[in-house]
Each structure stands twice: as structure tokens, then as C-alpha cells.
């Protein structure tokens, strides 16, 4: 689909306004695209989705003709409908019959992020916004929220969009309806969205980390990394200096990175061969402070900028510190004042299920990291911690856990395992750490299972310990999603604590 790469903002805008456009999917992203197309005064929009409930949420398009079709009907009718552009929701795989059919008919296919970016770059809704793109296997939501807080603290008109907050297309449509304009879009973007956005070029872009994930969608880890790399087409790419796969991906694409971040001393970054160019800035930790080193043209540091304390950052631990360093590096690329960075971090509280402390009782800290749905995320959540009662298990999706257990085993006090793939997890723990206490929860009812988890953890925990839900696995074997899993973990942790207090 070479035509997709060649799409220019003005051409794309003309197509959206004057030709038939097909929107694949009527979920959050799809509805945002539809609202933007209607705001543009699009002539005809065809929506393909089998979820009739989702379709029912689509409002009247005003002057735009809206036609709603099931997916199979849309596939069969594609030649007759003759759309000049397909805008797909991120969950649709490249091998989806509708998208394959569109490719055979030489119809350009782009994603929701690409559509919003093209429209914005065309100046349709005023001066084009500054786009900041955050992607990675883990930490995207926290980093996006942190960065937005820093920008707002600096007096900037910034809005978190993408997989956090509002779809950027919906934000553009909202402005058309008279809502306040945001001059900066801080976009959390997935590998799916980037796959369908080969022309996307943000002002600042960062890949936080890379680990095997969504391989069923991308087909291979190499393809996954390649799609993530679209974020590094930014005018100001920011590199994760502590992640070898990010660095390798950047080197392979000759990324001219302008800054990098680390949870270590930032001056160590410049000495490493990471890019084809000399870094201008590096953000990291020195003497308990988050600092930025600014380098001269000779590669030598000529200025140290103090940004914020490295302690007290939410979420606690290396993962939260890495997110803070990444956010600060991107904020500094836009000239955000150090005082704004410090203020934002001091007031920042991580969103639910991302390292949230849900209970402090009897000297024991209970942490909900239900969002850690793969081994890489679980390692980030547990790295550097000690005296941990680890609550883990669920759907491993074929992911290996041997490396995870090697990385975190020294900090574990006990394991409480649940979920469909608990036996695989327990077997690996027993192989590597044969003396580590392991409690296996066989219950499959979601509430019964988490009640048993809380009971076991309370019995194991002593003052100074942490009980950490970092499953390293997906949740849909028992739960409606990671949110329900985390909510029940918090609920029963508190319930047992209250029962102890009443006793």
C-alpha cells in the first residue's frame, strides 16, 4: 500500500471531504474519527462494525451521509462502495478481510492517529498542533500523564490523547464545536496505531522500552519493533538509554537522536555508541536528583540543570523513575522550566492499576500493578524491590517467565499464584527458587480467587514486606479485564485488614 505512505495532508483532507471514506470499527477510536469527518463536512462516511451497540452510539452526521454496515457486508460491497480512503481502528489486524480487500483494490488504509495528524497538519482546525508521541511496551500511560502534567504546570495548553484520555480526532472535533483548543497533543500511541501511520512525524517522540508483545498481531518481534520505530521519526527523538532493544532499533534506522534518558548518571549516556550523531542532552539521576546534562558541540558537558528530587516519585521504584526521566527529557525538548517539572512530579499520582498503593497496614504495603500483563511489565514493577510477596498468574499467552524470575528472584519472599497458567509459573519458580514458599490458588471464580489471594498474602506478610500484584499475564481467563482484577485485589486486601483490626 505505497499510496498510504505518499498521502499528504492537503490531499488527505480533500479526500475526506469530497469522497466516500470507510471507517473500520465503531469503538472509541472509530467514533472519534467519525466525529472529525462530520466536523470536516465529509460527503459520505461508511462505517463497518458488527457491534450493533457500538453503532448505536454514532450520532447524526449533520450534512454528512452516514451508512452503517456489518463487516461481511462491507467486504462484499467494497468494490461497489468505492471508498477512496479506509481509516481503521487500531485493533484491526492487517490480515482482516476488509483491509486485505482494500489493499487489493489499491485503496489507501490509514489509522485513527494518522487521520487526525493529517487533518491537523493541513491546518483545518487552526495552526497545526505540536505532537508528542510516547510508545513502548510498558509505561506509556504513566509517562503520558506525567508529561502532560509538566506541560500544564509550565503554562502550556496541553492535552493527553490517544490510548489515554480522548482520541485526537475527537479532540479536533470538540474544538470545532467550540470547546477550548489544546496547542499540544501528548499522544500515547500503540504499535497498532503506528503500523497504520507511516507518514506520522511528531515533534518529539520516544520509545520507552521494547519487549515481545502483540506478536499475534504483528507477526514477529522485528515487525513489532519496526512499527514502534515510527515514533522516532520525530524532529526531536528521545532515546531510552537503558533499553538495548530500543537502542538497537534506533541504530538500525540511523535515528539522529537529540536526547536520551536513563535512571543512572546521565553523563554515562554520552559515552555509549547509541546513534549516528552526538546527543545534545541527557536526563538521569545524580546524587538523588533528577538532572539534565547539556552537551556542547564537542560532546563534552557544558551545563548541568537540576530538575527534581529522584525520591518520592509515583509509582515508586525504577519503573516510575524511568517514566519520570523520560517525561522530563521530552518536556525539556520543548523548553519546559525545571520548576514546572519538579512541581508536576511532586503532585503526580499514578493511575489505578499501575503501581498504585492500595493499602498500608501493619507495616505492609499492598501495591496494585494489575496493568503488568506481560513478563516485561512485571519485571519493571518488581525490579529493585525486596521482601516481596508476589501475586502472579493468569494468561501467559505463550510468554516465557524464566528470565523474569531470574531478574526478580532475589527480591521475593513468597509467591501467590492464580490463573489458568499458574502451573507453568509455579514450575519455573520451583525450578529456580526451590526454597521459596509458593501458595497456589486453584479457585476459578474471580472473587473467590482474589479473596483467597488476599487471605494467603495476609498470612505470609510481616512488617517491612510488600504484597505486589504484578501478574505477568493477561486477566481474561477469570476477569473482565485488568481493572476488575486490580479492584478485587484492593477490595479484599482492605477487607482482611479491617477484619484484623476488628478482631
Offer a concise description of the structure:
This protein is of the alpha/beta class and about 500 residues long. It has 21 helices and 20 strands. The protein folds into three domains: about 10-115, NAD(P)-binding Rossmann-like Domain (Rossmann fold); about 130-345, UDP-N-acetylmuramoyl-L-alanine:D-glutamate ligase; about 355-500, Protein-Tyrosine Phosphatase, Chain A (Alpha-Beta Complex).
Radius of gyration: 24 Å
**Number of helical stretches of at least 4 residues:** 21
Please tally the β strands and state the result: 20
Overall CATH architecture of the largest domain: 3-Layer(aba) Sandwich
Domains, number: 3
Average per-residue pLDDT, rounded, comes to 91
CATH class of the largest domain: Alpha Beta
CA distance, first residue to last residue: 67 Å
Question: What would you note in describing this structure?
Answer:
With 503 residues, this protein is an alpha/beta fold. The chain folds into three domains: 9-115, Rossmann fold, CATH 3.40.50; 129-347, Mur-like, catalytic domain (UDP-N-acetylmuramoyl-L-alanine:D-glutamate ligase), CATH 3.40.1190; 356-502, Mur ligase, C-terminal domain (Protein-Tyrosine Phosphatase, Chain A). Helices cover 40% and strands 20% of the residues. It is built from 21 helices and 20 strands. The strands form three sheets. It has a nine-stranded mixed sheet, with helices on both faces. A hairpin with a 2-residue loop joins strand 12 (281-286) and strand 13. The longest helix has 21 residues, at 482-502. The chain is globular and about 65 Å long. 53% of the residues are buried. The model has no long low-confidence stretch (mean pLDDT 91).
